[in-house]
Amino acid sequence: MLNLNGIVDVETIHELDEYTDLRFVDKTKYLCAEALGLYEQKILSNEEILSICEQTMGQDLYVPVPSYIPNDILRHFRGSAVVPVSYRPISGTITCVALPELGKDFMPFQGKKVDVLYTTIYNYFFEYVKQYGPHKDLQIVPAKQLLDSIIREAIGIGAADITLSSVGQLAQVYYNVRKRKVYSQRILNSDNMEDIIKFLCFKSPMDVTSRDPKYVGVDLNEFYRGRVVINHKYKGYAITIRILPNAAFDKDLSQLNLTKETVSFMRRFMMNREPGLRLIVGSTMSGKNTTALAMLSELVEGDRMKVVSIEMPVEQELYGIEQINCDTEEEYETNINSLIRQNPDFVYVTEIGDTTAEAIMRVTNTGKKVLSTLHANSVAAVIGRLQDITKLSTDRIVQTLHSITYQELIRDEASDSIRPVNRFIYLSPERKAQLYGKSFGEITLKLAEWEGGDVW
Predict the structure, then answer these.
(1) DSSP string, 25-61
(2) What's the rounded mean pLDDT across residues 1-19?
(3) How confident is the model at residue 41 (pLDDT cuts 50, 70, 90)?
(4) Which stretches within 178-253 are classed as H helix?
């Protein structure tokens, strides 16, 4: 047992003891069992944990530098007490890691030199699970408990989303923190992935025979919801969970770190009473919806307009707005088609996608003021993107469009922060008249000429 007195507080020691009981079939079998919890929960730095383990073991411990291991070598050591972590073909040397508690027993490999080095308990089990899958001495953590702990870690570090991904026998967890990839240190395997998928999809089971992505909206805890997409990947799955706070959104445009020019454009044009489609465009995780929600918050001030939103799922509660939550694309499209009969003054649809684009265009052409988001690489790219997903002519698209704002998030390494930058354009009737009947190339050049905003 590790002596952690004076290193972490008593409460943490008790929690770590409970976590160790949960992770091991028999924790008394291992001298440094608590080190696995220290590592997975990131209670101490890896260097600090290594130092404590070396003091407890009374020897230096090897930190693996993994490399490609041929399948015949992996098969040879399966079931032994050691795990291969690197192979040097020129010298014919195989480096393996082991734990003193488990010994160094293995069958000799003809023609190969085998170096066996002791390592920390967390490095050993990480390498074992990566190569061979679940270890008999590690217990499978229930899916809900495991997911809850991942969500707590993500929220604690300010992550915008969580990714769980199969990598061979291993399952990796990492977070998007201010546009930086931050890895969790949890040692998971493919069985954990399947259990988490079943838990997320218990209301609507995933069809494992289909290669189609699965979309799910879930409650992560009492304060956050999640927008989940599950994709099949080569030999496994990728799960992405967008973290959405339940708290009512109370920010206006002036609180989003936008430039004065961008805020002025949005208030003057995108929020005016002219009919037409307003778009906020950009790549995934560029803050499009956050900016859209701030616009809606300003629109309902004074409670003078009926604003209806159709979201999949509702990201944040917005007072004064009729928010319609959708869990499937079918619900999404059906509710968009119902907007005409609801007679809203202003409509917000979370995103224009392949299955909903035509319905959104139809609603806009009934004289409605519609705000939505679209994945596009620039203001000028919007026409082509809408053509791709609607198959409408450029004239029909130009007729429907009202204004476009492109947004991108720029990372500032010095301050470990991100800020939005924007380009925008308003398509007045006079400008539209200059675009009708023109080629796609001519339209693209005109849009690029007219757009204003930030320079970056």
Answers:
(1) S-GGG-TTTHHHHHHHTTSS-HHHHHHHHHHHHTS--
(2) 92
(3) very high
(4) 190-200
Rounded-to-integer distance, Cα 262 and Cα 230, Å: 35
Q: Across-strand partners of 401?
A: 277
Query: Angle at Cα 375 formed by Cα 398 and Cα 214, nearest 5°?
Result: 130
DSSP reduced 3-state for 205? coil
Q: Could you please report the per-residue DSSP string of 81-111?
A: S-EEEEEETTTTEEEEEEBTTTB------TT
Residue pair 56/118 in contact (Cβ under 8 Å)? The answer is: no
Q: Spell out the residues 6+ positions from residue 14 whose beta carbon is closer than 8 angstroms to its own.
A: none
Helix 382-390 crosses helix 440-450 at what angle (to 10 degrees)?
Answer: 140
Q: Are 423 and 449 in contact (CB under 8 A)?
A: no
**For residue 251, what are its two tokens?**
């920010």
- Burial group, residue 285, by CB count within 10 angstroms (0-12, 13-18, 19+): middle
Residue 290 backbone dihedrals phi, psi, to 5 degrees: -60, -45
Residue 318 has φ and ψ, to the nearest 5°, of: -125, 115
- pLDDT recorded at residue 313: 75
The predicted structure's pLDDT at residue 455 = 65
Least confident of 82-96, 208-222, 371-385: 208-222
- pTM, entire model: 0.80
With residue 345 as reference, give the H or E element that holds it.
none
Taken in order 351, 176, 205, 235, the sign of the CA dihedral is positive
Of 79-88, 227-236, 308-317, minimum mean pLDDT range: 308-317
Question: 253: which residues sit within 8 A by CB, 6+ positions away?
Answer: 263, 266, 267, 291, 294, 295, 298
Residue 313: CB atoms within 10 Å = 20
DSSP element (H, E) containing 452: strand 452-453
DSSP-derived letter for residue 185 is: -
Q: Phi, psi (5° rounding) for residue 360?
A: -65, -40
Here the tokens at position 440 are 């796609």
